[in-house]
Amino acid sequence: MNKRRRYSPEFKREAIALTRQPGVSCRQVALEIGINPNLLTRWRREADESTDKAFRGSGSPRDEEVAGLKRELARVKKERDFCAKRQCSSPRSRPEVSGDSALSR
């Protein structure tokens, strides 16, 4: 399942600022930062139409904090699961069975 990427207002503003440099096209900037050129063109058009209202965001600061905490929690869970898998698969962490030592003699 593809999830739509969300870009922060700061990212959008910085990308638009890059397009306003002399001799640089929207397409060139978009390809350099890894987004679709049409998306960057739309952001620029939206910013030009309503400078004060562009990229305000729809959530409250608390919503942004909760979203950030959820991202951090997901990252920490991945790290935990990775470490748990590494411990289980390493030969040192396996308990020795009493019959194994008798067979190796």
Question: What labels would you give this structure?
Answer:
105 residues, mainly alpha, Arc Repressor Mutant, subunit A, 2 domains, 5 helices, 64% helix
What can you see in these coordinates?
With 105 residues, the protein is mostly helical. It folds into two domains: 7-57, Arc Repressor Mutant, subunit A (Orthogonal Bundle), CATH 1.10.10; 58-94. It has five helices and no strands. The chain has helices at 9-19, 26-33, 37-49, 61-89, 98-103. It is elongated and about 60 Å long. The model has no long low-confidence stretch (mean pLDDT 78).
Distance N terminus to C terminus?
Answer: 54 Å
- Which class of the largest domain in CATH terms? Mainly Alpha
- Discrete helix count: 5
Quote the average pLDDT: 78
CATH topology of the largest domain, which one? Arc Repressor Mutant, subunit A
In helices, the fraction of residues equals 55-70%
Task: Tell me the count of domains.
Answer: 2
Total beta-strand segments: 0
Query: Hey, roughly how much beta strand do the residues contain?
Result: under 5%
> What series of H and E elements makes up the topology?
HHHHH
CATH architecture of the largest domain: Orthogonal Bundle
**Coarse structural class:** mainly alpha
Low-confidence stretches: none
Shape: elongated
The largest β sheet comes out as:
none
Radius of gyration: 25 Å
Explain briefly what this protein structure is.
With 105 residues, the chain is mainly α. The chain has 5 helices and no strands.
Write the layout of secondary structure elements.
Layout: H1 9-19, H2 26-33, H3 37-49, H4 61-89, H5 98-103
Helix pairs in contact: 1-2, 1-3, 2-3
